[in-house]
# Entry
Amino acid sequence: TTEERIANERISSIFDLAAGVAHELGNPLNSINIHLQLMRRQLSRLGREPATEKIKSSLEACTNEVQRLDGIITHFLQAIRPQPPDLRETDLIETLYDVLNLQGPELHNLNIHVDVEVRADLPPVMADPEQLKQVFFNITKNAMEAMDAGGDLKITAHADDDYVTLIFADTGVGISQQDLPRVFQPYYTSKSGGHGLGMMVVQRIMRDHGGQIGIDSKPGTGTVISLRFPQRHRRMRMLESR
Ligand code: ADP
Ligand code: MG
# Structure
């Protein structure tokens, strides 16, 4: 509708403005970082007196906060300045394992058991592997954060004539019926340290791939997220009909 279009345009111009600011913040942040490093180096030449130790730990705190800011800005720019996907024939499961292996230690620490159940003949899809990794990372990260006392993450995949579907089911805290539609909204988060951008990025990447995301959840039981990727021939037809 026209109303939606106007709202979208407004959001996108706000995003442009914010992207500019975020980008500008990069230079001073860099400079702060360099000076913090210089100060640390100077300090290490002094003796281990209580006063210098105190300054040292303050400098460390500053460095950590600068890194956090840097992370927020990078995350933000990534979220609002999407790159078009570089599509190539991609093995979904291989890409999934790249992410799961990376998260192995954290999954282990949280006592989360991961079970991947996939048919051997799952066809490859046309996708950007780096963007896919981001999708899998954001989804599994949320699952981990929903299961901080341990649980199961079951990942299954199947294909029909039109789609290859990947399903992530966790046994975490779940999402209430009224919060469910909000998970894709930018900055919606139920976590104290959350950004609220992860699911928005997932949705955008899936859309850029001609795919879809579905979510279903029950508080106290868990969350199921399904990703549908168009089969190659369907994608071709879709592009032709544009
Ligand atoms: P963030 O993780 O920074 O909060 P996201 O966009 O990744 O932001 O997720 C938004 C919100 O959606 C989360 O704060 C949480 O409330 C909900 N959510 C997403 N995935 C899950 C999940 N697997 N289990 C429970 N809640 C989830
Ligand atoms: Mg998240």
About this structure: Residues 103 and 189 are 22 Å apart (CA to CA). The first helix runs from residue 2 to 44.
